[in-house]
């Protein structure tokens, strides 16, 4: 790249020729790369989706007569409940942290994204074990107030909504906070200084500017909720995703299960559509310099205490208490005579998890940069459509992606063999390549979303100026777009890495023999209902996932201080 | 971050990644895809010590591992496919994933009801899905003794059962279809659905009896054994179901040798060992019953639950095949 670039002393003519050749190449290059990426992302799901062309009418009719209507209702209620909860918690806390100063506010700004590191299935089983009917809290309650004393049903839709909200609100919090630190907050301050009251400034300036961030955050929250099939089962919530697995595992009819997976996909498409609508058409390019962000006001007395308590309670419920409980169990197991099985292979599991998460994050960020930058250097809407398509893997549950990837890779293997390029053994499934591929298909969307949101804040004019000054697209991306949107790029990488660290079903199905990750280790114990023994591995996932989360916190607070 | 540093980091990661997945093509190694997770290490280590044959295994869930073997076809590394229910074994046999074995040792060790009629797979451990109850709240003559009884109105609000997505629930219902016919089974399951608090796992069901949410439940026997191992005053007792009728439903953990096995004889040697000399190592740690009638169950279950009981003699392959019907039946019965 550097070798081909014109030297300082190059003639003006030379530069111009160089530029137009590069431009033409990139005009072609961006769409081609975007198309390939999109194809790779869509193929695995496509393998399954073809079964819809020949639907198993009997299964659909039977399901429609029995469970499906309730599943649709449960899915809708869960999604609405978790979205509302996450908006309230994520948006509210972001405002509290950004717009006010109170004792601990800076620290809370750091800590409140920690629940990102908590897998929902872990919070699910800890909650049921501790607060559920047979847990110590309710036992104490009954001992104190009598056997029939009322206690809210934990294993319920309400319980599921609370648990999902507690682990997923950080997605909204993160994006809202970044927006408040940037343009949205700054514009609010300007509106205030021009005489608008706080409500008017919020309604007319802040919300419109904040809306893309909130919409993106809620979309991620909804997708994570929609595609979950483990946590919902703890709480007896029967969603469409659960339906897919009942059909698949119970009747062994993979085609029928795939057809039901497309139903999940349809719901996901509705979510994406909703996000597009909520995000709105408006693009707010801002000329001139970094925005100042919202200026914090100091809270005192009762207001400060209330703000502090709110943050503390959320943090305790979503992270502090469950982590403490896991630690307690882990210590109990470690000092007991039973011990945690396979604890001697801990470092191996840890290393595997780290490799997998890092590779996935790197792959996803690179692909996301290509897909998000493409439209700036190439005409036509093809790239935009292609990058929308890559969200498909995020829109179906993990095992569906995994089976799709197995089928796709086996087909690839067959094709290669057909042209005499037989690959040794099971390159398809028994390799890390297949695993990273599947992870990337699944988690490209959250990375893409974050990076896209960041890039939207880089005005088109900046790109245009750089191009008119002769910079090549790749160097504009590397030297201008990424540095300007670095918080978003890091956010994208972290979201992918954290999801990958917590991911279970894909690893379960696709990993090479002997390659176990921390979630696999946890799962092996948890499926046997050995929750106390699963505490140590679960704790390990949380601690490891805290590394990228902490990194992100650091960058965010730096970003906040810099502006 | 400069792009060079970035590339260096990526290269290092990639190198690590390749190192991590270098698996040897070792000849004297048996590779297993297994839906069973517990006690494998102990049994396999013992086998390796006795024979010098090493074992590598990949844990997962039954259905997905079966799909993976089917997709990988002849490229699969799996010599053996092992599960914790008969449904997936029967399905794998139907998909033609297994070899038919000719093994007098296995045929002698595993009772006919617990293996595939075509000798494609064999049960290796037995788990009884039976009635458990609170001896504090139920007098001996009140304790239900059949699955049917739990469907009668007198038990309304007093039963805890496991949800219908669970393989154990499905295989129990499949065996009821096998013995009572579809409509007979439907009647029972509808009664259960009316009476029961549906829970997500057997441990919670047991603790719910302890804490008074319900008086009786249906669980796998070894979950109770585990609780009793930790606390011998645990206030839940076991009742073998249907002793005067079809017998208690037993779900199995079993295995077969894949059609794509590198060395089927080696794999067969392992299955034979697991069904004979290795039975105790394989089943005792999880308090399961051996399938081999010549092997005694471990002390705790032998003394508290009994050495033997009347087990449903319907062939496992049959209710394995009925699993899909069971799921439909559960849906129709509106069982959560």
Mean pLDDT of chain B: 90
Largest sheet of chain A: 2 strands, parallel
Number of strands of chain B: 10
Total number of β-strand segments of chain A? 2
What is the multimeric organization of the chains shown? heterodimer
Strand content of chain B: 15-25%
Describe the model.
The complex is a heterodimer of chains A (563) and B (336). Chain A is mostly helical. Helix content of chain A is 74%, strand content 1%. In chain A, helix 1 (12-49) packs across helix 14 and helix 1 (12-49) crosses helix 15. Chain A is globular, with a radius of gyration of 25 Å. Helices cover 43% and strands 17% of the residues of chain B. Chain B has helices at 3-20, 40-51, 62-72, 86-94, 104-109, 167-195, 202-210, 221-230, 264-275, 279-283, 299-304, 316-321, 323-332; strands at 29-34, 54-59, 80-83, 121-133, 159-162, 196-199, 216-220, 237-239, 249-257, 289-290. The model of chain B is unreliable at 1-8 and 13-25 (pLDDT under 50). At the A-B interface, helix 6, helix 11, helix 14, helix 16 and helix 21 of A face helix 1, strand 2, helix 3, helix 4 and helix 7 of B.
Short key terms for the protein model shown above:
heterodimer, A: 563 residues, mainly alpha, two-stranded parallel ribbon, disordered N terminus, B: 336 residues, alpha/beta, 13 helices, 17% strand, globular
In terms of topology, how is this protein built?
The complex is a heterodimer of chains A (563) and B (336).
Chain A: H1 12-49, H2 57-65, H3 68-99, E1 100-101, H4 105-111, H5 120-131, H6 136-145, H7 157-181, H8 183-193, H9 198-227, H10 231-234, H11 240-251, H12 254-279, E2 297-298, H13 301-335, H14 346-377, H15 382-389, H16 398-418, H17 432-456, H18 460-468, H19 473-484, H20 486-502, H21 505-510, H22 518-526, H23 535-562
Parallel strand pairs in A: 1-2
Helix pairs in contact in A: 1-14, 1-15, 1-16, 3-4, 3-7, 3-9, 4-23, 5-7, 5-13, 7-9, 8-9, 9-12, 9-17, 11-12, 13-23, 14-15, 14-17, 14-20, 16-17, 17-20, 18-19, 20-23, 22-23
Chain B: H1 3-20, E1 29-34, H2 40-51, E2 54-59, H3 62-72, E3 80-83, H4 86-94, H5 104-109, E4 121-133, E5 159-162, H6 167-195, E6 196-199, H7 202-210, E7 216-220, H8 221-230, E8 237-239, E9 249-257, H9 264-275, H10 279-283, E10 289-290, H11 299-304, H12 316-321, H13 323-332
Parallel strand pairs in B: 1-2, 1-3, 5-6, 5-7
Antiparallel strand pairs in B: 3-9, 4-7, 4-8, 4-9, 4-10
């Amino acid at each position: 790249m550097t070798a081909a670039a014109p030297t300082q002393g190059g003639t003006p003519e030379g530069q111009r020729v160089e530029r137009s050749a590069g431009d033409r190449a990139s005009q072609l290059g961006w769409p081609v790369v975007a198309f390939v990426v999109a194809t790779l992302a869509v193929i695995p799901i496509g393998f399954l989706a073809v079964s819809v062309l020949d639907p198993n009418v009997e299964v659909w009719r039977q399901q429609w007569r029995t469970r499906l209507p309730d599943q649709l209702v449960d899915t809708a209620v869960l999604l609405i409940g978790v979205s509302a909860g996450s908006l309230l918690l994520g948006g509210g806390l972001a405002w509290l942290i950004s717009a006010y100063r109170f004792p601990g506010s800076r620290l809370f700004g750091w800590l409140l994204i920690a629940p990102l590191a908590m897998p929902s299935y872990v919070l699910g089983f800890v909650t049921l074990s501790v607060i559920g009917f047979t847990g110590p809290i309710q036992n104490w309650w009954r001992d104190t107030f009598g056997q029939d004393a009322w206690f809210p049903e934990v294993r319920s839709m309400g319980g599921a909504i609370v648990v999902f909200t507690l682990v997923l609100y950080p997605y909204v919090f993160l994006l809202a906070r970044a927006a408040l630190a940037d343009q949205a907050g700054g514009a609010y301050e300007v509106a205030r200084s021009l005489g608008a009251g706080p409500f008017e400034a919020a309604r007319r300036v802040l919300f419109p500017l904040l809306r893309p961030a909130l919409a993106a955050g809620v979309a991620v929250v909804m997708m994570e909720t929609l595609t979950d099939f483990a946590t919902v089962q703890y709480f007896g919530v029967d969603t469409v995703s659960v339906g897919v697995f009942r059909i698949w595992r119970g009747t062994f009819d993979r085609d029928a299960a795939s057809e039901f997976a497309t139903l999940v996909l349809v719901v996901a498409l509705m979510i994406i559509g909703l996000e597009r609508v909520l995000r709105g058409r408006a693009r707010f390019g801002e000329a001139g310099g970094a925005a100042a962000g919202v200026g914090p006001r100091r809270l005192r007395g009762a207001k400060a205490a209330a703000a502090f308590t709110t943050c503390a309670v959320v943090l305790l419920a979503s992270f502090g208490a469950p982590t403490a409980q896991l630690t307690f169990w882990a210590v109990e197991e470690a000092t007991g005579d039973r011990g945690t099985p396979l604890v001697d292979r801990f470092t191996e599991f840890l290393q595997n998890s780290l490799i997998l998460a890092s590779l996935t994050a790197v792959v996803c960020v690179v692909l996301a940069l290509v897909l998000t930058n493409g439209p700036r250097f190439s005409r036509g809407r093809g790239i935009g459509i292609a990058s929308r398509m890559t969200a498909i893997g995020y829109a179906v549950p993990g095992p569906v992606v995994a089976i799709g990837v197995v089928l796709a890779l086996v087909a690839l293997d067959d094709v290669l063999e057909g042209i005499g390029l037989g690959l040794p053994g099971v390159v398809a499934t028994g390799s890390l390549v297949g695993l990273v591929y599947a992870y990337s298909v699944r988690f490209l969307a959250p990375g893409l979303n974050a990076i896209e949101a960041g890039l939207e804040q880089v005005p088109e004019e900046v790109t245009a100026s750089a191009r008119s000054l002769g910079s090549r697209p790749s160097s504009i991306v590397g030297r201008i777009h990424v540095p300007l949107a670095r918080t978003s790029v890091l956010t994208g990488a972290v979201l992918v890495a954290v999801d990958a660290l917590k991911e279970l079903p894909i690893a379960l199905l696709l990993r090479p023999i002997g390659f176990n990750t921390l979630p696999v280790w946890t799962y092996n114990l948890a499926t046997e209902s050995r929750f106390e023994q699963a505490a140590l591995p679960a704790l390990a996932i949380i601690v490891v996932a805290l590394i990228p989360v902490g990194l992100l916190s650091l960058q965010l607070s730096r970003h906040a201080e810099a502006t | 971050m400069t792009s060079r540093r970035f590339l260096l980091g990526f290269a290092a990661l990639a190198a690590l990644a390749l190192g991590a997945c270098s698996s040897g093509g070792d000849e004297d190694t048996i590779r297993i895809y297994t839906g069973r997770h517990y006690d494998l290490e102990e049994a396999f280590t013992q086998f390796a010590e006795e024979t010098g044959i090493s074992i590598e295994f990949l844990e997962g869930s039954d259905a997905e591992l079966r799909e993976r073997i089917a997709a990988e076809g002849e490229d699969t590394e799996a010599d053996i496919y092992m599960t914790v229910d008969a449904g997936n074994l029967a399905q794998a046999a139907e998909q033609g994933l297994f070899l038919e074995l000719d093994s007098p040792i296995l045929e002698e060790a595993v009772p006919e009801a617990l293996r595939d009629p075509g000798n494609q797979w064999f049960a290796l451990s037995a788990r009884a899905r039976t009635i458990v109850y609170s001896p504090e709240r139920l007098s001996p003559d009140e304790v239900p003794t059949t699955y049917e009884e739990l469907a009668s109105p007198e038990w309304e609000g007093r039963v805890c059962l496991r949800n219908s997505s669970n393989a154990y629930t499905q295989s129990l219902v499949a065996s009821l279809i096998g013995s009572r016919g579809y409509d007979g089974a439907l009647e029972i399951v509808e009664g259960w659905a009316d009476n029961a608090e549906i829970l997500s796992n057997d441990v919670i069901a047991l603790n719910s009896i302890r804490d008074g949410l319900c008086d009786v439940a249906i669980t796998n026997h070894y979950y109770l054994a585990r609780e009793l191992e930790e606390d011998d005053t645990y206030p839940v007792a076991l009742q073998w179901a249907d002793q005067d009728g079809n017998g208690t439903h037993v779900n199995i953990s079993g295995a077969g040798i894949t059609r794509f096995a590198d060395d089927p004889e080696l794999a067969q040697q392992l299955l034979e060992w697991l069904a004979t000399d290795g039975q105790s190592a394989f089943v005792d740690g999880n308090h399961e019953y051996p399938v081999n009638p010549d092997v005694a169950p471990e002390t705790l279950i032998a003394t508290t639950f009994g050495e033997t009981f009347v087990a449903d003699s319907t062939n496992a392959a049959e209710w394995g095949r009925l699993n899909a019907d069971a799921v439909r039946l559960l849906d129709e019965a509106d069982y959560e």
